[in-house]
């Protein structure tokens, strides 16, 4: 029982992170219909940036935790969205009207490039950061197993929920959100109605990168270790989350993220931690076999 | 586009400044700042000169690029205007000759470089990638199914030979068809559930499949030896004659009354993979002209139309998967036999990405393009060993740039193998 609740907490935390990354996949897929393979690496870039930012803060002697967190978030979001913009501009925009395979391959190239760029410029070794928010609550003890809820976990869940609400508001209520949804439905029509499609797509990439940046900061604070290779697996899992929830659906991405996080932590706890990635991939294959449109997605109609 | 040519200098400078600012923002967290572990904790190190160099290169690079682009685009436009009147489908006979020259070179290579083991070893590696590229070309180039987990079939072939030979004493030639069949079976197993998926979903699923195979190989220690892999895999023999110093068993050197030399085996392995690769090429080129090959290309071009015409799309895709996987399996058997040692390390995702890059850079569907791309991707890193840190970095950048520059690949434009031979049809497919 204690173990079960503990894994529920861990799984929800992990799922919140996956969900934040998955939002980027889903938005980009919705608007230009391609898998942004480099998105996982954008998340990794942000984790590395947040390590640098955290170290800078301690070098400057800033010790107030909320201030540090806010500054690191701002720095990471700012720089990472420039990365998101640059990736779209160099690797995807020139291929807007090419065959489906071309942008996917340039995305894979971009992913390899980013990963190795960070390895070369920041070093291949794991980067540890000191714990920012120590401690937590001990919820209860059951049969000698005490259930912990770390403050970091509370922070991750709160930040994710706040972001989700703000983000949903942005998409459903603002003029940018309307433009974005218009581009999603019909790019040509949207451009005829005076929407700057290229600009909207650029902003979408920046927004996706910003969400991934938040996930990167959270993971750095939560685990305390980051290296250049974390992007690949996290990217695949977030993509699985996006597919599970239904690609193109924003609540679906969050739901998928939470489900993947829960499955992963229960699988690790009760079955075998070595095969936890196999579980994710197996779910991906099963979902695509039996429900390709995901849990909350609309089935796609193939047009001639 | 001609407007770009007449862009005043001030505007071009403004543009370059804008790009320079972006470069600065990109560079600050990665080049300008870094963290290093110095006695107990991370310390921030600054590298402002490096950042300044980077921004400078980007700024002037942008200016030059702008100038080049506007200069050449104008030229291109003029040429197009002239060329439009005489648009004829260009046959490229020189490509055929280039292929023949490459083949002749491949055959004489071990004689030209006899004794130079390094050259022959590298050439063998190139040929393995050529063979893998040709195998993947069936799936990606002909059938248009994007496969990011091709290395799984390579692994199936390699482990089939590794296990069958070390556990049951099977020889290379006996294992070859069995391993090919195993890989084909895996191809069908993977293909079956994913047939309903479109291009990019399929890519992710195949990637997941490749990772599953690798994770199983790493963790199922009883079966595969885990991360330690399989050691002392027997080498292939020349019709039963082994490549060993003279001893009890008949050896190659003794049979042909030669003095024993380790180079014999290296040369033999080179010719073995050359023959395997050429067989693959002939096999695939023949298949292209059979109904199944035409069906592959038809499915690639328009799946919906194929369905409407009553083509069994499922069967067509599965056959492409099975044949592509089988060829990958053959290459895997050769790999295991050549190395004598295999471990999951050899079958990681970047390997799949390399093979895919070979197919895509070569031009999907082009057999000769695969050869050049394999040569490029294997030999360039060998030449630049000093840059080994930057190898994958440049590799990724090259993948992006080549895609942006030529989305169809270096050699081929996706030309159908057959087309109706009327002047009207020729004019319609430039």
Automatic annotation (TrEMBL), chain A:
Entry annotated with the keyword Metal-binding: no
Keyword terms, alphabetized: Amino-acid transport, Cell inner membrane, Cell membrane, Membrane, Transmembrane, Transmembrane helix, Transport
Record's subcellular location: Cell membrane
Pfam families registered for this protein in UniProt: BPD_transp_2
Transmembrane segment boundaries: 12-35, 42-62, 68-86, 98-118, 150-171, 203-226, 238-263
Recorded topology in the membrane: Multi-pass membrane protein
Family stated for the protein in its record: Belongs to the binding-protein-dependent transport system permease family. LivHM subfamily.
Protein name: Branched-chain amino acid ABC transporter permease
Lineage, uppermost ranks: Bacteria, Pseudomonadati, Pseudomonadota, Betaproteobacteria, Neisseriales
From TrEMBL, chain B:
Keyword list, A-Z: Cell membrane, Membrane, Transmembrane, Transmembrane helix
Membrane topology designation: Multi-pass membrane protein
Major site of localization recorded for this protein: membrane
Domain High-affinity branched-chain amino acid transport system permease LivHM N-terminal as annotated: residue spans: 12-108
TM spans (from-to): 16-36, 48-69, 101-120, 126-146, 153-172, 178-195, 202-220, 268-284, 318-337, 357-380, 392-408
Subcellular location: Cell membrane
InterPro entries per the UniProt record, alphabetical: ABC_transp_permease (IPR001851), LivHM_N (IPR021807), LivM-like (IPR043428)
PANTHER family in the record: HIGH-AFFINITY BRANCHED-CHAIN AMINO ACID TRANSPORT SYSTEM PERMEASE (PTHR30482), HIGH-AFFINITY BRANCHED-CHAIN AMINO ACID TRANSPORT SYSTEM PERMEASE PROTEIN LIVM (PTHR30482:SF20)
Listed name of the protein: Branched-chain amino acid ABC transporter permease
Organism: Silvimonas iriomotensis
């Amino acid at each position: 029982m204690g173990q079960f609740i503990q894994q529920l907490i861990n799984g929800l935390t992990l799922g919140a992170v996956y969900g934040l990354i998955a939002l980027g996949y889903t938005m980009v897929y919705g608007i230009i219909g391609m898998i942004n393979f480099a998105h996982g690496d954008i998340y990794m870039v942000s984790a590395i940036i947040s390590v640098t930012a955290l170290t800078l803060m301690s070098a400057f002697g800033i010790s107030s935790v909320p201030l540090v967190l806010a500054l690191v978030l701002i720095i990471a979001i700012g720089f990472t969205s420039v990365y998101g913009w640059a990736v779209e501009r160099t690797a995807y925009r020139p291929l807007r009207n090419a065959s489906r395979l071309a942008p996917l391959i340039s995305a894979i190239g971009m992913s390899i490039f980013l990963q190795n760029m960070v390895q070369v410029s920041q070093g291949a070794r794991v980067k540890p950061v000191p714990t920012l928010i120590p401690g937590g609550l001990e919820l209860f003890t059951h049969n000698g197993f005490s259930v912990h809820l770390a403050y970091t976990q509370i922070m991750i869940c709160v930040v994710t929920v706040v972001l989700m609400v703000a983000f949903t508001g942005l998409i459903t209520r603002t003029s940018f959100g309307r433009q974005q949804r218009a581009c999603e439905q019909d790019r040509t029509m949207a451009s005829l109605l005076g929407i700057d499609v290229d600009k909207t797509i650029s902003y979408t990439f920046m927004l996706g990168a910003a969400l991934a940046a938040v996930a990167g900061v959270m993971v750095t604070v939560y685990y305390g270790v980051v290296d250049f290779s974390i992007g690949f697996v996290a990217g695949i899992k977030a993509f699985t989350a996006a597919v599970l929830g239904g690609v193109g659906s924003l609540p679906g991405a969050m739901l998928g993220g939470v489900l993947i996080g829960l499955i992963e932590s229960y699988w690790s706890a009760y079955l075998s931690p070595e095969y936890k990635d196999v579980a994710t991939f197996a779910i991906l294959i099963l979902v695509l076999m039996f429900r390709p449109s995901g849990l909350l997605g609309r089935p796609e109609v193939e047009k001639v | 586009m001609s407007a770009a040519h007449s862009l005043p200098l001030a505007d071009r400078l403004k543009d370059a400044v804008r790009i320079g600012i972006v470069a600065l923002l990109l560079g600050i967290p990665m080049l300008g700042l870094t963290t290093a572990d110095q006695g107990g904790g991370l310390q921030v190190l600054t590298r402002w000169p490096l950042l300044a160099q980077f921004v400078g290169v980007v700024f002037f690079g942008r200016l030059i690029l702008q100038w080049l682009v506007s200069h050449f685009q104008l030229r291109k436009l003029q040429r197009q205007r002239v060329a439009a009147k005489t648009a004829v489908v260009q046959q490229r006979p020189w490509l055929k000759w280039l292929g023949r020259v490459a083949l002749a070179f491949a055959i004489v290579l071990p004689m030209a470089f006899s004794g130079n083991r390094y050259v022959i070893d590298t050439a063998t590696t190139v040929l393995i990638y050529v063979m893998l590229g040709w195998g993947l070309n069936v799936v990606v180039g002909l059938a248009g199914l994007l496969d990011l987990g091709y290395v799984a079939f390579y692994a199936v072939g390699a482990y089939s030979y590794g296990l069958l030979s070390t556990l049951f004493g099977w020889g290379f030639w006996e294992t070859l068809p069995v391993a090919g069949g195993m890989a084909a079976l895996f191809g069908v197993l993977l293909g079956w559930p994913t047939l309903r998926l479109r291009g990019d979903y399929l890519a992710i699923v195949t990637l997941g499949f490749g990772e599953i195979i690798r994770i199983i190989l790493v963790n199922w220690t009883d079966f595969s030896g885990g991360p330690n892999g399989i050691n002392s895999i027997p080498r292939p023999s020349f019709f039963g004659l082994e490549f060993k110093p003279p001893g009890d068993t008949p050896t190659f050197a003794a049979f042909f009354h030669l003095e024993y030399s380790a180079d014999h085996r290296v040369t033999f392995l080179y010719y073995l993979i050359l023959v395997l690769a050429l067989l693959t090429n002939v096999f695939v080129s023949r298949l292209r002209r059979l109904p199944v090959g035409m069906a592959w290309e038809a499915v690639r071009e328009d799946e919906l139309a194929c369905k409407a015409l009553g083509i069994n799309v499922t069967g067509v895709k599965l056959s492409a998967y099975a044949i592509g996987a089988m060829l990958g399996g053959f290459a895997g058997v050769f790999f295991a036999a050549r190395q004598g040692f295999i471990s999951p390390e050899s079958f990681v995702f970047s390997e799949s990405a390399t093979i895919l890059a070979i197919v895509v850079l070569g031009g999907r569907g082009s057999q000769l393009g695969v050869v050049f791309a394999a040569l490029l991707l294997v030999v360039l890193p060998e030449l630049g060993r000093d840059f080994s840190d930057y190898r994958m970095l440049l590799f990724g950048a090259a993948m992006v740039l080549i895609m942006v520059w030529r989305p169809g690949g270096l050699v081929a434009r996706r030309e159908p193998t057959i087309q109706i031979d009327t002047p009207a049809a020729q004019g319609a497919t430039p």
